[in-house]
Design goal:
Number of strands: 10
Shape: globular
Helix content: 25-40%
Strand content: 15-25%
Order of helices and strands: EEEHEEHEHHHEHEHEEHHH
């Protein structure tokens, strides 16, 4: 049984249709990567799962429970089981690293300050940044901000980690570091991983399976080897960077920009 299920999901923002018929399973314990051109709704999928956005139709289930009909209080319970690394890390500039990492812990319960110190310290150590609790986001490099954001996500001990473009804007060294961290956390914390990215090097490195979204639905799902061998033209164009089909030109130009 899948841990996460999307069935017939539809979502539009005014005239802009993002999903026409989204169907996707995420298996417990796997690392699934979502790829696709700019504007295809990859990040929207993550926000639908945790209730930051509401679908227009269809079913979204987490561990057998329907997400779309949950109250705000019920959604809060689901979110405690899911950590998310937002694009850009989304740190609070007015809070220290300690308070950024502790933020979700304070939202989800009432730990003592001593408990917070221990969890924050452990979480920063997991991402290779021990001892920086008293630094501020403005003092951190882009790669460090991503890792602090990841420490915040794992501090609540989630069952699932969602990554929204985790390597965007990073140099090759930090990209490799983040990819290794994703694999390390999946293995050591037994976490189900869902990654949104357009970086195929990362996708091939971290994934058990890769799913491609195009024009409102899933057009391909398979292992890295299966997607490398795929003959579907839209898949081939995306992973090889070949000249796009006419219908995809504007989307790929936006992605390149």
């Amino acid at each position: 049984m899948a841990l996460i299920e999307f069935r017939g999901v539809q979502k539009a923002f005014g005239p802009k249709v993002v999903y026409r018929d989204l169907n996707l399973d995420v298996v417990r314990g796997e690392s699934l990567t979502i790829i696709g051109g700019s504007g295809q709704g990859k990040s929207v999928m993550l926000k639908l799962l945790i209730g930051l956005l509401k679908s227009d139709a269809g079913s979204i289930k987490y561990d057998g429970e329907e997400v779309t009909t949950k109250s705000d209080q019920e959604l809060a319970q689901t979110r405690r089981r899911i950590g998310m690394l937002f694009q850009g890390a989304a740190l609070f500039d007015s809070l220290s690293v300690r308070e950024n990492v502790a933020y979700g812990l304070r939202e989800h319960g009432r730990p003592t300050e001593a408990e917070l110190d221990q969890i924050v310290s452990e979480s920063l150590s997991y991402v290779g940044l021990p001892g920086i609790e008293h630094m501020w986001p403005a003092d951190l490099s882009g790669g460090m901000k991503k890792r602090v954001g990841l420490a915040r996500a794992i501090a609540v001990k989630p069952e699932v980690l969602l990554y929204d473009e985790p390597t965007t804007g990073l140099d090759p060294i930090n990209t490799t570091r983040i990819n290794r961290l994703i694999l390390h956390l999946k293995k050591t914390l037994n976490i189900t991983t869902v990654v949104v990215t357009h970086d195929m090097t990362s996708a091939f490195t971290i994934s058990d399976r890769i799913t491609m979204i195009h024009q409102g639905s899933v057009i391909f799902t398979g292992t890295p080897d299966e997607i490398r061998a795929a003959e579907e033209p839209r898949v081939r164009d995306f992973i090889e960077g070949n000249a796009p089909h006419e219908e995809d030109t504007q989307t790929l130009l936006r992605s390149a920009g």
